[in-house]
Design goal:
The chain is mostly beta strands and 125 residues long. It is built from one helix and nine strands.
C-alpha cells in the first residue's frame, strides 16, 4: 500500500464527493456510502451513511476507513464517525481524519493470467 506524500484527508476531499465507509474487522467488513456535505477545518460533514452490505451496525464514535475514487486510483483514510451536535437527521461528522493512502493504482483490478495467443498475419490488399 503506497501513500501519496502524507496528504491530510481534509485537503484531498471535495464537497459532494462520494465516500464509501468501511467499518469492522478484516473479513467481516460492513460498507456504507455517503456524500461530503461540507468541509470544516477539523472535520468533514457528511450525509447520513446508507447501508450497502455487511453485518455490523455503524455506531456513533466508531473508527472507519473512508474510501474515495479518482480517475487514476482509489484512495483511503481513517476517521471516526460521530453524530452532529445538535443531532441532525441527515448529517454526521467524520473526525480525527488520517492521511490519505492509495489502495490501488487503477479503477480496475489487474489479473495476472497467462494464456497462449494465436494470431495470423493478414495480407495487404
Amino acid at each position: 500500500m503506497g501513500s501519496i506524500q502524507t496528504i491530510p484527508a481534509i485537503q484531498s476531499i471535495q464537497v459532494w464527493e462520494r465516500l464509501t465507509l468501511v467499518a469492522g474487522d478484516p473479513g467481516a467488513e460492513t460498507y456504507y456510502s455517503c456524500r461530503v456535505a461540507d468541509i470544516l477545518p477539523d472535520r468533514l460533514v457528511i450525509s447520513r451513511p446508507v447501508y450497502e452490505r455487511g453485518r455490523s451496525l455503524l455506531a456513533d464514535n466508531r473508527l472507519v476507513d473512508a474510501v474515495f475514487t479518482r480517475a487514476d486510483s482509489a484512495y483511503s483514510f481513517g476517521a471516526r464517525i460521530r453524530e452532529t451536535e445538535p443531532k441532525a437527521e441527515d448529517q454526521m461528522w467524520l473526525l480525527d481524519l488520517g492521511t490519505v493512502h492509495r489502495l490501488q493504482r487503477r479503477r480496475f483490478v489487474r489479473i495476472d493470467k497467462a494464456d497462449p495467443v494465436r494470431f495470423q498475419a493478414l495480407s495487404r490488399p
